[in-house]
Design brief:
Length: about 300
């Protein structure tokens, strides 16, 4: 019953978002406001690739940002809005597929989704006051430790992980608190996917169970920001339409693969995702530190 309620709410949310989104695109097209310099097909290919990897747990924001900046596919000013608007529908589709196709404990799913949403709504103001570089250092270190334990578990040096589909008692309380924090961190640019996958794995759950949890959490988080960007018109409409259209196709193909991948292979994917995210966190921390040192040198 709870899974059906979640699916129903997701469908309602995505229908409302789609109506607002499509109306804005049609209005812009009628008034010749669609971005002439944006390549629909290039952004479409990027959207397919980004959402394909998003469904595998790697996340689409980094992929789209890196490609957009490297090949100057869209303006930096509209990039944040483009990221949020263009991936909202595909993200909801992915969540619907995983929440209905991959078995997970409904109570665990609901509580962790609510916790992450509350974290984004309530905790963002608290977390935003923390030093970004220290968040990056702590997250990078934590993820590196998790990646290490996943690796030694995969080569049978230490048993870790499990096949549980849900949590109970204090484990569920701890996981919900962590998701609250991750929801808050997501609003300041720290991705939720890798930490969430690492969390459920280290608490003895199946890596597959992470997919419906993290996808559903993000599916409820994104539309609120997406509505705001659409209302203010601060996003690349042509790029967003291309990413949405082709991204849904890429996401659905990847969803099929995730359901077909054996558990051992899925754990290796988890290891790569967590390690990759840890390295990115350390690189961001190093960049902050280098910038600070440069500023001190100039002052001196």
């Amino acid at each position: 019953m709870l899974i059906k309620v979640i699916s129903g709410l997701l469908i309602l949310l995505i229908v409302c978002f789609s109506i607002v989104y499509i109306k804005d695109i049609l209005r812009a097209n009628k008034n010749n406001e669609l971005e002439q310099e944006t390549s629909f097909w290039k952004m479409g290919i990027l959207g397919f690739i980004a959402q394909f990897f998003d469904a595998l747990g790697i996340g689409s924001f980094n992929t789209i940002t890196a490609a957009s900046k490297s090949f100057k596919l869209t303006k930096d000013k509209t990039l944040p809005g483009t990221l949020m608007v263009s991936t909202t529908i595909a993200g909801a589709v992915i969540a619907l597929v995983f929440v209905t196709a991959i078995e997970v404990d409904p109570i665990t799913l609901v509580l962790m989704t609510i916790s992450s949403s509350l974290g984004a709504f309530i905790g963002a103001g608290i977390v935003s006051k923390m030093s970004e570089k220290w968040i990056q250092l702590l997250m990078g270190t934590a993820l590196a430790v998790v990646a290490f334990f996943i690796f030694i578990g995969q080569i049978n040096l230490m048993p870790i992980g499990g096949e549980a589909l849900g949590l109970t008692g204090w484990d569920l309380v701890i996981a919900s608190v962590v998701l609250f924090i991750l929801g808050a961190l997501m609003t300041i640019g720290v991705g939720l996917f890798a930490p969430c996958m690492a969390l459920v794995f280290t608490m003895g759950m199946s890596p597959a169970a992470a997919f419906p949890i993290m996808m559903t959490a993000c599916a409820f988080l994104q539309p609120s920001a997406g509505f705001k960007f659409i209302k203010e018109g601060v996003y690349d409409r042509k790029a967003s339409l291309a990413i949405t259209t082709f991204g849904i196709v890429g996401a659905l193909i990847a969803c099929f693969l995730v359901k077909s991948i054996p558990l051992v292979a899925l754990k290796w994917i988890l290891f790569v995702v967590v390690l990759y995210t840890s390295i990115r966190m350390f690189k961001s921390y190093a960049a902050h530190k280098e910038k600070a040192m440069s500023s001190l040198t100039k002052i001196a």
